[in-house]
Amino acid sequence: MNYVEVCVSPALLDSYHANDKLVVVIDVFRASTAICTAIGYGIQSIIPVATVDEALTWQDKGYITAAERNGEVVAGFEFGNSPFAFQKPELIGKKIVLTTSNCTKAINKAEKAGVNNIIISSFVNLSATVDRIIELNTNVLLLCAGWKNHVSLEDTLCAGAIVNRLLDRGLKTRCDAAIMASRNYLQAESDIAGYLVGSSHQLRLGHLGLDEDLEYCLQIDQWTKVPQMVGNELVAGSVHSLIASA
Amino acid sequence: MNYVEVCVSPALLDSYHANDKLVVVIDVFRASTAICTAIGYGIQSIIPVATVDEALTWQDKGYITAAERNGEVVAGFEFGNSPFAFQKPELIGKKIVLTTSNCTKAINKAEKAGVNNIIISSFVNLSATVDRIIELNTNVLLLCAGWKNHVSLEDTLCAGAIVNRLLDRGLKTRCDAAIMASRNYLQAESDIAGYLVGSSHQLRLGHLGLDEDLEYCLQIDQWTKVPQMVGNELVAGSVHSLIASA
Q1: Where are the alpha helices (DSSP H) in chain B?
Q2: Which site among B180, B185, B189, B190 would you substitute to test the A interface, given the most A Cβ atoms closer than 10 Å to its Cβ?
Q3: N or C: where does chain A have the smaller number of CB atoms within 10 Å of the terminal CB?
Q4: What is the pTM of this model?
């Protein structure tokens, strides 16, 4: 019997004994959506780093670098975490170094917790994520990146969507956060954008003219690849490489 | 304009700038229910302490002491956190020292964060809690005690019930956890016990024969007093004493 849990903030990760589980990092607005888009589109890999300074070090070595803080592109970087920025033909086959406010920090936190199997999910690769979890046949922890350790409704909803599908496919849960997320998603699924009206992303991102980005981020199943950490890179995943890296 | 926020785990408290807010500690199963019951019933005060060792120190001084860990009374203590244990005529007017798995630790954490105004809530004093918050006319953070830093569905539901009533009475929220809790409560309110079927409290407490306790803990508005911290004691609150302690 495999179980699914939801961790609603990276600040709670230490309570979850995550190191022997598959960890699925979710940051719907916008980093995990951008990563799933990039890998789906054909970018060779995303190298997630926790700090702007680390990204600058890679930039000095000649890497393409992307950095976002507080929803905006950091000065001196080619782009931030808009999923549209990663869909450019000249980027196909390239490696991109990325640092973001929350998602890359969540990935970094999971690595430091000793997690060997990390994959990236968002609404845009929802079905592929669920299929991958089922293939891997393991206990899974859905890690919501949130916003500066606060709960983000959109990340929790995406986790809830995954929970519901996993429960339908035979996993169990004993996790109250998973139950909450699952039931919130049942309320939201017919109109996710409507359900998010009034939530904190509007305060954070509403003034940045990102409506097109946000609409894109809620589109289910745009991509069929599931990015996974192999070494220090997120690459198009396969079941074989995930098990091998464990 | 006053705002309401929900912190779903004490481990997230540091992210909330709680020190200038009214903090409402919620631990439905069973400590905050027991404290609200005790103060409602006429016990003079509850002295919450974080550790069993601290409680033993008070015991040595002759105080009545209660201690719960993992749902059970700690050996050597008169009682734990069953709300029925606090409804005995011989306890009226007395002070009781209490340590519990989560609630007293959450109180302690709020104190260490510099919070001056702490009150205790549960379903059993729901309306009184809401009235008190409105009287105090301040920003409020609902702090769910959870279980060992994990989210607890029953605490989040109680927070959601308070959020809904506060929104009806003019407060606003910009907190996604408050939105989630509020909407979960809307799903749950017609059958709270039914909504909790399958949640983690059954795993933790189901084998301890606490059905009567748990049923009691979900009864709305059994008591009209709101315990508040004054010095190191939880006493029957008044608006005057709360403002004075700020």
Answers
A1: 31-41, 52-60, 103-112, 126-136, 153-168, 176-188, 192-195, 200-205, 211-217, 239-245
A2: B180
A3: N
A4: 0.95
